[in-house]
Amino acid sequence: MPEQRGRKYHQERVAETLREEIGAMIEGELSDPRISFAYVSQVVLNPGGKSALIYVAVDGGAKEEADTLEGLMAARGYIRHELLERMGVRFVPELTFHVDRSEKMKARIDELLGRTRRRQTTGSRE
Fold this sequence. Notes:
CATH architecture: 2-Layer Sandwich
Number of strands: 3
Number of helices: 4
CATH class: Alpha Beta
Oligomer: single chain
Mean pLDDT: 89
Protein backbone atom coordinates (compact mmCIF):
# COMPACT_ATOMS: atom_id res chain seq x y z
CA MET A 1 0.00 0.00 0.00
CA PRO A 2 1.53 3.35 -0.98
CA GLU A 3 2.39 5.83 1.71
CA GLN A 4 -0.03 8.71 1.96
CA ARG A 5 1.18 12.18 1.04
CA GLY A 6 -0.05 13.67 4.30
CA ARG A 7 1.95 11.24 6.40
CA LYS A 8 5.12 11.88 4.39
CA TYR A 9 4.64 15.64 4.68
CA HIS A 10 4.12 15.30 8.44
CA GLN A 11 7.31 13.27 8.82
CA GLU A 12 9.27 15.86 6.83
CA ARG A 13 7.95 18.63 9.08
CA VAL A 14 8.80 16.68 12.23
CA ALA A 15 12.30 15.91 10.91
CA GLU A 16 12.89 19.59 10.08
CA THR A 17 11.66 20.68 13.52
CA LEU A 18 13.94 18.12 15.18
CA ARG A 19 16.88 19.36 13.11
CA GLU A 20 16.27 22.99 14.09
CA GLU A 21 15.67 22.33 17.80
CA ILE A 22 18.57 19.91 18.28
CA GLY A 23 20.82 22.29 16.35
CA ALA A 24 19.85 25.14 18.68
CA MET A 25 20.59 22.96 21.71
CA ILE A 26 24.01 21.94 20.38
CA GLU A 27 24.92 25.56 19.62
CA GLY A 28 24.09 27.05 22.98
CA GLU A 29 22.44 24.93 25.62
CA LEU A 30 24.55 21.82 26.02
CA SER A 31 27.46 22.64 28.31
CA ASP A 32 29.31 19.33 27.94
CA PRO A 33 32.98 20.13 27.23
CA ARG A 34 33.24 17.07 24.97
CA ILE A 35 30.89 18.64 22.43
CA SER A 36 32.90 20.77 20.02
CA PHE A 37 31.59 23.04 17.26
CA ALA A 38 29.00 20.99 15.37
CA TYR A 39 25.74 21.33 13.50
CA VAL A 40 22.91 18.98 12.57
CA SER A 41 23.13 18.28 8.85
CA GLN A 42 20.24 15.84 8.47
CA VAL A 43 17.52 14.04 10.43
CA VAL A 44 16.13 10.77 9.08
CA LEU A 45 12.94 9.53 10.71
CA ASN A 46 12.03 5.87 10.77
CA PRO A 47 8.82 5.37 8.72
CA GLY A 48 6.91 4.58 11.92
CA GLY A 49 8.29 7.66 13.64
CA LYS A 50 9.58 5.69 16.65
CA SER A 51 13.27 6.45 16.04
CA ALA A 52 15.38 9.07 14.30
CA LEU A 53 18.94 9.14 13.01
CA ILE A 54 20.58 12.50 13.67
CA TYR A 55 23.57 13.24 11.42
CA VAL A 56 25.96 15.76 12.97
CA ALA A 57 28.82 17.43 11.09
CA VAL A 58 31.72 18.13 13.47
CA ASP A 59 34.44 20.70 12.86
CA GLY A 60 37.72 19.00 13.72
CA GLY A 61 39.50 15.69 13.49
CA ALA A 62 38.64 12.15 14.49
CA LYS A 63 39.14 12.81 18.22
CA GLU A 64 36.72 15.77 18.18
CA GLU A 65 34.17 13.68 16.25
CA ALA A 66 34.40 10.82 18.75
CA ASP A 67 34.20 13.14 21.77
CA THR A 68 31.25 15.07 20.34
CA LEU A 69 29.39 11.87 19.52
CA GLU A 70 30.05 10.56 23.04
CA GLY A 71 28.81 13.82 24.58
CA LEU A 72 25.66 13.85 22.45
CA MET A 73 24.86 10.24 23.29
CA ALA A 74 25.26 11.08 26.99
CA ALA A 75 22.90 14.07 26.65
CA ARG A 76 20.28 12.09 24.70
CA GLY A 77 17.81 11.93 27.60
CA TYR A 78 18.03 15.67 28.26
CA ILE A 79 17.59 16.42 24.55
CA ARG A 80 14.49 14.20 24.31
CA HIS A 81 12.99 15.80 27.42
CA GLU A 82 13.59 19.31 26.05
CA LEU A 83 12.11 18.33 22.68
CA LEU A 84 9.03 16.97 24.40
CA GLU A 85 8.45 20.31 26.13
CA ARG A 86 9.33 22.52 23.15
CA MET A 87 7.41 20.66 20.48
CA GLY A 88 4.34 20.00 22.61
CA VAL A 89 3.89 16.45 21.37
CA ARG A 90 3.07 13.23 23.18
CA PHE A 91 6.02 11.27 21.87
CA VAL A 92 9.56 12.15 20.80
CA PRO A 93 11.38 9.51 18.75
CA GLU A 94 14.37 7.62 20.11
CA LEU A 95 17.46 9.54 19.00
CA THR A 96 20.64 8.03 17.60
CA PHE A 97 23.53 10.32 16.68
CA HIS A 98 25.95 9.69 13.82
CA VAL A 99 28.86 11.70 12.47
CA ASP A 100 28.25 13.13 9.00
CA ARG A 101 31.48 13.05 7.01
CA SER A 102 29.93 13.88 3.64
CA GLU A 103 31.41 17.42 3.49
CA LYS A 104 34.92 16.11 4.18
CA MET A 105 34.50 13.37 1.57
CA LYS A 106 33.21 15.91 -0.95
CA ALA A 107 36.22 18.15 -0.33
CA ARG A 108 38.59 15.20 -0.76
CA ILE A 109 36.91 14.12 -4.01
CA ASP A 110 37.09 17.69 -5.34
CA GLU A 111 40.79 17.80 -4.43
CA LEU A 112 41.49 14.53 -6.25
CA LEU A 113 39.50 15.61 -9.31
CA GLY A 114 41.43 18.89 -9.37
CA ARG A 115 44.72 17.00 -9.30
CA THR A 116 43.71 14.78 -12.22
CA ARG A 117 42.55 17.81 -14.23
CA ARG A 118 45.89 19.54 -13.62
CA ARG A 119 47.76 16.41 -14.68
CA GLN A 120 45.71 16.14 -17.86
CA THR A 121 46.27 19.78 -18.81
CA THR A 122 50.03 19.63 -18.14
CA GLY A 123 50.29 16.27 -19.92
CA SER A 124 48.51 17.53 -23.05
CA ARG A 125 50.88 20.51 -23.40
CA GLU A 126 53.99 18.31 -23.68
